[in-house]
Amino acid sequence: MFSKKDVTQIVQHGVSVEQVAAQIEAFKTGFPFMEITRAATLGNGLFPLDETKVEEYATKYENQAKTLKVMKFVPASGAATRMFKQLFDFMNNYTGSEEEFLNILVDRGPESLYYFFENLNQFAFYNDLKAIMYEHELELDSMLEKQQYIDILDFLLTEKGLNYGNLPKGLILFHKYIDFSRTAVEEHMVEGANYCRSANEKVPIHFTVSEQHHQLFIEHINSILPIHEERHGVTYDINFSFQDPSTDTIAVDLENEPFRDENGDLLFRPGGHGALIENLNNIEADLIFVKNIDNIVPDRMKKFTAPYKKTIAGILLSVQETIFKYLNLLDKTDDIDDKKLDSMLRFLEKDLCIVFDEKIKTQPPKKKAQFIKKKLNRPIRVCGMVPNEGEPGGGPFFAVNPDGTQSLHIIESSQFDSNNDAQKEIIQKSTHFNPVDLVCGTKNYKGKKFDLHKFTDQNTGFISQKSQNGRALKALELPGLWNGAMSDWNTIFVQVPIETFNPVKTINDLLREEHRTFEP
User: What's residue 462's pLDDT?
Assistant: First the structure.
């Protein structure tokens, strides 16, 4: 299948021939669906929080944070192409005819082109756009009146102007305040100062970025660092990592043969956000907060987000204390009291929501202890879940594990069999979804880092169809960061308010009330 030239290319890419062969086999066989047994709902796999518990757990985190090494982990890679897809489509197809213009006026909803142009002056980047056009002796407002939309978008999206179509979301101005505007990166820095302070008032933040944008991130952050260090009385410790090329996956044609470019070389593609488990695995911290770059709010909304970040961290610390206590107890003696083992099994069932064969309860103490230790000695995450109001995204479910037990998983739509009526019925009973708002504990009870690769389910990748220079191809994405890559973690789902979830998937999302900097 592979020539000497291919083998050289594969090795230079940082992967093995065996890995590439296994990926091609995965294209041929596909991936098995997850077997979902029920949705995680309030009181059944999903824990509710009242004001007392929010305060209690937040206080616990605040009291311990200064003795811990905490980290805010923000995936910020890639260009914001999807965010501007509607504008690019319009730009590439609009000819300026009266008929096309009238079609624009038909749909005036919040996701429409009309709404974008009608509210252009409400965007945080409006003044920058106006200024750069003025440098070219163009007046933005009069061009809007004349419906010169293509010229305006040219300055917004391309190198002629702000070049937003080629920048990552993190470097796009998201929020407009009275005297200034902030990028998504800057808002994450402000949010980090609210809850991610470790000893000596340090705020550690780790951004995963694409290598091509690395210098832009550095320059932007350096320009605003002194402002926020003085304003918040902190010192920022900001670092970056790139998606490792060794996590790229080979592309194939529609016949599952290696896809080759015009030079006959193999084509490798990024393995999706699941590849970031490599970046997460390299972080040395006691607690790691994970939040997407686009799920960020202006200051007036941070009163909702910061307390709940502290709360889920406090929950993790509380559960982790029990886990570590039990594991240390299991280490100290080979002849542990059977009642204590039964207490640990109840903890697995009630607190960690692990479903196992009842026969385990009648096993000899030694076998019980082995089972308990295996289930406890794993990375742990606490995930905020929000009520489902129609937003796309994975959700919380109980699913069957390779060892026959059931536990909590975040399941994406591609992971379940949509042709199976029983599975579809379970999906329809789902009440919450995953906003990617979690805190992770990646050290064991002896203070050593887990090797996170050992807790990934490689059978949870998925295949998608793409194109390269007009030629169809199939791409392989690795198990997603918060589903397959964390499949064998101990997981706790907690309900958090919908106000904590405010993603920006399209440019018009920035016009939502939640992203306005003034009180409605």
Answer: 81
Residue 275 reports pLDDT greater than 90: no
- Topology of 23-78+171-244+271-463+480-501 in CATH? Spore Coat Polysaccharide Biosynthesis Protein SpsA; Chain A (3.90.550)
Which tokens in the block code for residue 12? 């230079």
List the structure tokens of 190.
């402000």
What are the domain boundaries of the chain? 23-78+171-244+271-463+480-501, 82-166
**Is 161 strand, coil or helix?**
coil
Does 390 have pLDDT greater than 70? no
CA dist list (Å): 124 to 51, 85, 196, 240: 34, 19, 26, 26
What token pair was written down for 368? 């019980």
Radius of gyration of the chain (CA): 25
Query: For residue 332, what are the contacts with CB-CB under 8 A and spacing of at least 6?
Result: none
Closest CA to 500 of 292, 297, 197, 287: 297
Q: What is the pLDDT of residues 209-224, one digit of tens each?
A: 988 899 999 999 999 9
Report the largest interatomic distance among the alpha carbons of the chain, rounded to a whole angstrom: 84
The segment with the largest mean pLDDT, out of 71-85, 269-283, 437-451, is: 437-451
Look-up of token digits 């979902």 = 36
Give tens-digit pLDDT for 402-414. 999 999 999 988 7
Which residue type sits at 117?
A: F
CB atoms inside a 10 Å sphere around CB 76:
22
Which token pair is 8? 């050289």
Is there a contact between 491 and 312 (Cβ–Cβ < 8 Å)?
Answer: no
d(CA 235, CA 212): 27
Q: Are strands 70-75 and 41-42 parallel, antiparallel or unpaired?
A: unpaired
Place of tokens 């550690």: 204
Per-residue pLDDT, 107? 85
What pLDDT is stored for residue 318 in this prediction? 98
Nearest to 38, CA basis, from 443, 470, 423, 329: 423
Question: 28 burial class (0-12, 13-18, 19+ CB within 10 angstroms)?
Answer: exposed
DSSP state of 119: T
